[in-house]
Design goal:
Two copies of one chain form a homodimer. By secondary structure, the first copy, chain A, is of the alpha/beta class. The first copy, chain A, contains eight helices and nine strands. In chain A, the strands form two sheets. In chain A, strands 5-6-4-3-7-8-9 form a seven-stranded mixed beta sheet. In chain A, strands 1-2 form a two-stranded antiparallel ribbon. The longest helix of chain A has 19 residues, at about 10-25. Chain A binds a DNA duplex (30 and 30 nucleotides) through helix 3.
DNA sequence: TTGTCTTTGTGAGTCACTTCACAGTAAGTA
DNA sequence: TACTTACTGTGAAGTGACTCACAAAGACAA
């Protein structure tokens, strides 16, 4: 359960997926599974699954495979899923609102507890179950609600400014939907989701796959 | 301009970013730049930039750097950005609508030309400038409008069924917002954007970064 | 008991991408 | 002309993730 040897980001991503798949299985009453079964569900290889499970320091038995319940417990421990995550969202436009409503049926352990905007017509309203504040209250709310992850859904021109504000307020992880890369100190982790870029990449491979991936 | 030696996916992703950054610069009147300048904008290294540009078969000159206009042209040619892409979206829920409205101020070369749903209250309406059809018309519309990229914003339970339908209709690239991995033949390219997963990953690294990334 | 079967755990190999480091070169200077 | 400077292009080394392939081990059979 210690195992402080850095777990690669790719493995963490797969862990999140494994956890979801395993939880489904468990709720259907399945108790145990083999690496090749999980591989089929996750669309990767048995060797990959075994390596991943080894990486997080868990083990199965050659004949019964892996115990689903204890594997979920282990993954949850790794992901720190025990503590509920409080998340802030900045930029209550179309995309921001969609994400808010997407998260109302709350995902396990992830809750958007506050939204922020500069537009007074949005401030102090409750949108999809989430209260909206003026952005000048950001830092105090972050402290008050113990938020350490932020979502950015503002226009590109403001993304870096919002980022800087988040960093200053003590946010440690940022999910950025604006189509610009953000500069953050290396004590902060930033990820970008860029729908237009993804589509362009897809459009490229839609044509160019002779045998590619 | 030929250069049929497979370009890695990562390089393609950066190309999309470079194109946007360079277009900004060009519109501000800048004619030329050096690898270290583009690297600063893209938040990567000069060596990476030079390698990328080499990979797509372009070159600069040691003293003037790269010519922005011709580099954009080259990248655009690589990405096939010349032809306008027609995209279909299936699942006009919250997220689907947000994406539609996000794309109304149309991104260069990318247009969502049709949306599909099973809900009759949405069918035949125009939402954010995009006409919504019943899903049973999918295949005929794909043919009619020459669509080869699809966006999936339906619930997880229906994602695979929609995928199979897309594949059958001849779609070659799929952007999937449902939190399940899709099975597609290797003639089709599928990408998943999973907001909840991204947040969980971020939450993990928000804590666990000693020196990580 | 021994043998067969199935699956795990993992060292070693492979592969793909990134970074290093330097030769080559054009522009400016005198 | 030769000298300096600042950058590109790229072979080679490095890095990190994935896959292979096989020893080890439990389960079952007879």
């Amino acid at each position: 359960m210690k195992l402080t040897k850095n777990i690669p980001a790719r493995t963490i991503e797969r862990m999140v997926l494994y956890k979801r798949l395993l939880s489904d299985l468990l709720s259907k009453g399945q108790k145990t599974l083999f690496s090749h079964q999980l591989a089929a569900l996750a669309h990767n290889t048995p060797a990959q699954v075994r390596r991943d499970i080894m990486t997080i320091g868990h083990e199965g038995s050659p004949h019964k495979g892996y115990d689903i319940a204890s594997l979920i417990t282990r993954i949850t421990a790794i992901l720190d899923g025990s503590k509920d995550r409080s998340i802030a969202l900045v930029g209550v436009g179309n995309l921001g609102r969609a994400i808010l409503s997407y998260f109302t049926y709350r995902h396990p352990g992830l809750t958007i507890v506050a939204a922020f905007d500069t537009d007074d017509s949005k401030v102090d309203r409750v949108i999809s179950g989430c209260r909206c504040y003026h952005i000048r209250e950001f830092e105090s709310k972050v402290k008050e609600l113990d938020i350490n992850v932020g979502i950015i859904t503002v226009p590109a021109t403001q993304a870096q400014a919002v980022t800087d504000m988040m960093v200053a307020a003590g946010i440690r992880g940022i999910l950025n939907f604006a189509p610009v890369p953000l500069k953050v100190p290396d004590t902060v982790c930033a990820d970008r989701i860029d729908i237009a870029s993804s589509l362009e990449k897809l459009a490229y491979f839609a044509d160019h796959l002779k045998q590619h991936e």
